[in-house]
Amino acid sequence: MSTSTTEQIVLSVQRSTPRLWLAAAVGAVTLVVLYAALPLAGVAYPTARPILEPVAGGAARLLSAIDITTVLVVVAALTVVSIARALPYGIGAVLMLCPGAPLTAAAARSWLPESVLASAHPDGRIVAVASLVAAASLVVPSRVRPAVLGLGLAATVAVSLAAVVTAAASFVGVLGALAITGTWWALAAVVMAHSPIAARRERKNPLDTAALKLRR
Question: What are the TM regions of this chain, as residue ranges (predicted)?
Fold first, then answer.
């Protein structure tokens, strides 16, 4: 790799990292406002009610299809993609985002006060689908990324609408789920932003892997 190419990589990382940290901060602030500031200010979120009853059955079936087995299969596939593409930090980013976002949503549902209705809690199924889409966007080749993002956005919207239709989540719960996913995506993207630098380093010294780097 030439010096100019190396400098371009470093400059690209330096430019993207502040924006990603800002995105993570926006997500975190959104969560604080939704689940701390507004409830403490006495704002009561409305109770979610089923809507569009003719499609409620299909919406419920869609939500029931999202389970731990499906999520683990997709995570394993994304891990294989990271290995096949020799992305030094790809596996770390996937394993950081996919468990991190759902676990944060689960913790929020456990820790939020009773004054916040269950339907306003971050919906775990929306978080699961959105985090898989976000992880895929970080590791798939750039030529297929638009298709992945398009299909993933459609899937996320479908699951979000299904949750609202069945009253599993209110619009607040949908927003909270997306804020959690967006925060974790930004953090994982910071990791991936340094992946080209790690690739360059490992080409110079194959023994200096990302795993060994973390141990130092």
Answer: 20-42, 62-84, 91-112, 124-140, 147-165, 171-193
Residues 97 and 128: their CA atoms lie apart, in Å, by 10
Cα separation of 117 and 109, whole Å?
10
17 Cβ contact partners less than 8 Å away, ≥ 6 residues apart: 190, 193
d(CA 147, CA 92): 23
Distances (CA, A) of 157 to 140, 160, 162: 21, 5, 8
Q: How many other C-beta atoms lie within 10 A of the C-beta of residue 52?
A: 12
pLDDT band at 56 (very low <50, low <70, confident <90, very high): confident
The rounded distance, in Å, linking the Cα atoms of 208 and 21 is 27
Q: Give the tens place of pLDDT for each residue, 113-144.
A: 888 899 999 999 999 999 999 999 989 988 99
Residues comprising the chain, all counted: 216
CA-nearest of 99, 105, 106 to 79 is: 99
Check: CB of residue 180 under 8 Å from CB of residue 31: yes
| Dihedral angle of Cα 62, 63, 65, 70, to the nearest 10 degrees | 130
CA angle, corner 168, sides to 166 and 169, nearest 5? 115
The model's pTM is 0.84
- Residue 216 amino acid letter: R
